[in-house]
Design a protein that fits this description.
Elements lengths: L9 E4 L5 H12 L4 E6 L12 E5 L5 H10 L5 E4 L14 H29 L4 E5 L12 H21 L5 E5 L7 H5 L9 H13 L3 E2 L3 H18 L6
Helix pairs in contact: 1-6, 2-3, 3-4
Length: about 240
């Protein structure tokens, strides 16, 4: 998007009431965003101390909810889909099927709902950007987070497809792959202490400014990203000949 990727832009962030989503809102405001639609299932939890923040109800599991939010945010230019869910679950657990369906509905179908309802708006507003939070678990599965890892692998695949199909309308797509980050979700899942959510927000802004598809925000993510880079450049980001 270039050096003025954020200044005076209208953004929307899902899952903006806490953790990474809240940090993304704060970073956008600090970089001069003109307006930020901060969405959550409970919009009353949104921090509205800055007048540029517009709280908005959005439930990623509901197409009607996403559609209603899109109808309200017709001026949006940057959509950051941060909302997601995580269950501690191995493939052998009795609740693995139920958990996988739940996580897939939010982490994968939620992304598709957002893309389908907001892509036309981004097109009408000049292209803009769609950012998806995907996790290092989309690249490396973890046995105790098996269903989550699988759902994030699927969301990463959908993100790659979105990058291809939205390119023609001038929409930049960014795939973000954090490792452990200090959030309530990570704490409740028993993940080790990680870096602050602000590193994810900073990585997103950097990717938008420099037109990058992949973003690896923290130390673990960068380790994965460095190993993955040759494959990403030669396969994921390349134009393969059929």
């Amino acid at each position: 998007m270039g050096t003025n990727a954020i200044t005076n832009q209208v953004a929307l962030v899902t899952g903006a009431n806490r953790g990474i989503g809240k940090a993304i809102v704060q970073a956008l405001l600090a970089k001069g965003a003109g307006k930020v639609y901060a969405t959550a299932r409970k919009p009353e939890e949104i921090d509205t101390s800055d007048s540029r923040v517009v709280p908005l109800a959005l439930d990623l599991s509901s197409a009607d909810s996403v559609s209603a939010a899109a109808a309200e945010a017709q001026d949006v230019e940057i959509v950051i889909n941060n909302g997601g869910v995580l269950k501690v679950c191995s493939p052998l657990d009795a609740e693995a099927f139920e958990n996988f369906i739940f996580e897939t509905d939010i982490n994968v179908l939620g992304l598709m709902r957002v893309a389908q309802h907001f892509a036309p708006i981004l097109k009408d507003n000049g292209g803009g950007a769609l950012v998806q939070l995907n996790s290092v678990a989309s690249l490396k599965a973890f046995g105790s987070f098996a269903t989550y890892s699988a759902s994030k692998a699927a969301s990463y695949s959908i993100t790659q497809s979105l990058e291809q199909v939205l390119k023609d309308q001038g929409t930049q797509v960014v795939s973000v792959h954090p490792g452990p980050i200090n959030t309530d979700m990570a704490d409740s899942a028993g993940l080790p202490d990680g870096e602050p959510p602000s590193v994810v927000a900073d990585a997103i802004i950097d990717a938008l400014v420099h037109g990058r598809f992949h973003a690896f925000p923290d130390a673990m993510a960068r380790q994965v990203g460095e190993a993955y880079q040759p494959f990403a450049e030669n396969v994921i980001e390349a134009e393969l000949q059929g």
